[in-house]
Amino acid sequence: MTLDTRYIGHRLEPYTADVEKGRLKFFAKAIGQADPVYTDEAAARAAGHPALPVPPTFLFCLEMESPNPGALRELLKLPLPKVLHGEQRFTYHAMAYAGDTLRFEQRIADIYAKKGGLLEFVVRETRVTNQHGAHVADLQGITVVRHG
User: Fold this and answer.
1) Interval 39-80: pLDDT, tens
2) Which residues contact 76 (CB under 8 A, 6 or more apart)?
3) Radius of gyration over alpha carbons of the chain, in Å?
4) What is 5-146's CATH number?
5) For FRET with 128, which of 45, 61, 92, 106 sits at 20 to 30 Å CA-CA?
6) Which tens digits make up the pLDDT trace of 83-141?
7) Cα torsion angle, 86, 136, 20, 107, sign
8) Residue 5 pLDDT more than 80?
């Protein structure tokens, strides 16, 4: 199976996700984030934040909450047993906080092969903006498809 490179540039349906205070606290504890700014609203305000800030990498959790988390796999007809999450990158432009509503706009940035086609890579880029239209972050995820 060879992935169809005509999908490069294809945009998936945008969606929004609410940033919930309880989930931020749970995530911070789960990753061992000891800074009280991420779990205590008074500490966050004392540090100059209007609310609990979104911990690094939490946007990946929200990205997985799209109405159809399998949309990319379905579009490209990726064989689930052969799919691996290869890489994730984050570029932050502005802070996001509890109470924000974030918009996720995903597109397929690239599809390429290595090892004579035994490995194929799908690069997904996601632009994240908040309810005010401010550019919060860019996410890049690479999905690896093993053949053979």
Assistant:
1) 999 999 999 999 999 998 999 999 988 999 899 999 999 999
2) 3, 4, 7, 111, 122
3) 17
4) 3.10.129.10
5) 45
6) 999 999 999 999 999 999 999 999 999 999 999 999 999 999 999 999 999 999 999 99
7) negative
8) yes
Residue carrying structure tokens 């007809």: 77
Helix then strand count (H, E) for the chain reads 4, 5
**Torsion on CA atoms 110, 93, 128, 54, rounded to nearest 10:** 120
Residue for token pair 């509503």: 101
What token pair was written down for 27? Answer: 């995530």
Q: Concatenated DSSP letters for 70-126? A: THHHHHHT--GGGEEEEEEEEEE-S--BTT-EEEEEEEEEEEEEEGGGTEEEEEEEE
Max Cα distance, the chain (Å)? 56
